[in-house]
Structures are given as C-alpha cells and as structure tokens.
C-alpha cells in the first residue's frame, strides 16, 4: 500500500534525525524551508512535527524552536523509531540494549506460558514453528514465523501487560531476528532450540522452558557479539513494517 503524504513526510524527517542529519541539540529548519524541501504544505509539516514530539525525538518551544532530543528520550518502543534506526544502521548500544531487554522480559513470560498456555496458544506456536521449519527447508520468510513464535510466548503468558508489551516489542525483536538470519546457518542452528522451548511449554514445565529459552537468547547474544567483534559497519535492515495507509 502507498503511504499517505503525512506518513511519507514523517518517515523522511524521522530518518533524517536517526541518521544524524539533524544532530542532537540541533534545530530543524523553519517550516517554510521544510515545506519547500519536502514539497508539502505547512499543515502536513506541522502534523509530522507533532508526531515526532509524541515519539520523543524532538521538542518545540516559542523561544527555542524545534530541537532534536537525546536518544535517551526517544520512544524505543515505537515501531517507527525502530524502523528508522534499522534503516539508518544498527548500533552496538541498540543491539545490546535489546538483548538485555529480552533477557529480562522473555524468561518471565515463558515461565508463565508454561503454566497457563491453552491448547489454542500451543497450536499457534506450533504453527509458527512449522513455518520456521518450512522456511529453512524450502525457502521463505523465516523471520515472520520466528516473530510469531516469540509473540506467541508472550500471548500465552495471559498477562495483559506482557501481551501489550509483545505488541511493542515486535519491531525490536524483528530487528534482532533480521540480523541473526544473516549469520550463516543461524536459523537452522536455532530451530532445535525453539523446539526445546515449545516442548517445555507443552509439558507445562516452567523451569525447563526458562532454561531452554535462555539457551536461545544466549545464542543470539553470541551471534550479535560475533558480528560486533568484526568491527565492520553494522547493516541496515530493510523490510521493516511501518504504517501503510492509503493516499
């Protein structure tokens, strides 16, 4: 689907901030300049600015103008912010923050899932696992099914706050999974680890499920640290989902 004018303008400005074109503390150009550069009306620019303020990227004031905030103030649970970071290029801090977050949230969620998962929850995770397996053996989008599997774990916790967090974590997890699939045999080697997690949930064994998940997370940590140790420029990740409103 084609994005509307507002969404397209918001993406251009968000990408400019995340890529460093507008540095922290710097002012964005005045509205007339942005209108001319982007080829849109003042109304569109103002709406985009409001969205960037809501995402924590910028602040506005009558005397200070529109300035870029430090990345500590950015909303890292906003899918657009994650997408813009992925497109601008991943950073070591971003990846390590993400892995630390996973190590805090997912083990607790999988323990709850092992205690509370229903037959429908297990069927959803089993279907996601089979999708991962099929993608490895026959080709396809492994990441989509990997993401479904992990979001299924959060859903199976039947904790409303964790379920909501799962929606916010989606773009974060996708970023990590996109990177992992670029490592040779990464998906193939992680598939049996996912099976171990699912089998423990099916057996309703919280401790076993947590141990299995930590093996999976630690493996992802090792993969990421291996990528970082090469000191090569981290890749941009394409194909990230964003808003897709029609014009």
Q: What does this protein look like?
A:
- This protein has helices spanning 5-18, 31-38, 42-54, 79-88, 92-116, 119-138, 142-156, 160-180, 186-202, 206-229, and strands at residues 58-61, 65-68.
- It is mainly alpha-helical.
- It has two domains: 5-73, Arc Repressor Mutant, subunit A (Orthogonal Bundle), CATH 1.10.10; 79-229, GntR ligand-binding domain-like (Four Helix Bundle (Hemerythrin (Met), subunit A)).
- It has a two-stranded antiparallel sheet with strand order 1-2.
- Helix 6 runs antiparallel to helix 7 and helix 7 runs antiparallel to helix 8 (160-180).
- The N and C termini lie close together (9 Å).
CATH 2nd-level architecture of the largest domain: Up-down Bundle
Number of domains: 2
Radius of gyration: 20 Å
Instruction: Count up the helices.
Output: 10
The coarse overall form would be: elongated
The named CATH superfamily of the largest domain: GntR ligand-binding domain-like
Termini distance?
9 Å
State the order of secondary-structure elements, H for helix, E for strand: HHHEEHHHHHHH
Class of the largest domain, according to the CATH hierarchy?
Mainly Alpha
Mean pLDDT: 88
Main pleated-sheet profile: 2 strands, antiparallel
SSE class: mainly alpha
Strand order of the largest sheet: 1-2
- Unreliable runs: 239-247
Proportion of β residues?
A: under 5%
Number of strands: 2
Helix content: 55-70%
CATH-defined topology of the largest domain: Four Helix Bundle (Hemerythrin (Met), subunit A)
Record keyword descriptors for this entry.
10 helices, Arc Repressor Mutant, subunit A, mainly alpha, elongated, Four Helix Bundle (Hemerythrin (Met), subunit A), two-stranded antiparallel ribbon, 3% strand, disordered C terminus, 247 residues
């Amino acid at each position: 689907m084609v994005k509307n004018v507002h969404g397209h303008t918001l993406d251009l400005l968000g990408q400019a901030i995340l890529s460093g074109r507008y540095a922290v503390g710097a002012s964005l150009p005045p509205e007339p300049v942005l209108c001319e550069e982007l080829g849109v009306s003042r109304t569109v620019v103002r709406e985009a600015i409001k969205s960037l303020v809501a995402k924590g990227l910028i602040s506005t004031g009558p005397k200070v103008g529109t300035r870029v905030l430090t990345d500590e103030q950015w909303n890292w649970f906003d899918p657009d912010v994650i997408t813009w970071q992925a497109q601008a290029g991943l950073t070591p801090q971003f990846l390590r923050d993400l892995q630390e977050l996973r190590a805090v949230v997912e083990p607790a969620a999988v323990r709850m899932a092992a205690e509370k998962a229903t037959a429908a929850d297990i069927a959803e995770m089993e279907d996601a696992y089979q999708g991962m397996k099929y993608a490895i053996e026959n080709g396809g989008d492994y990441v989509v099914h990997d993401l479904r599997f992990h979001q299924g774990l959060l859903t199976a916790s039947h904790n409303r706050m964790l379920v909501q967090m799962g929606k916010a974590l989606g773009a974060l997890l996708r970023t990590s999974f996109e990177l992992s699939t670029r490592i040779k045999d990464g998906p193939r080697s992680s598939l049996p680890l996912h099976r171990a997690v699912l089998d423990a949930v099916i057996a309703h064994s919280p401790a076993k499920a947590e141990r299995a998940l930590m093996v999976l997370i630690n493996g992802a940590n090792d993969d990421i640290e291996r990528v970082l140790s090469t000191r090569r420029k981290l890749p941009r990740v394409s194909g990230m989902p964003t808003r897709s409103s029609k014009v």
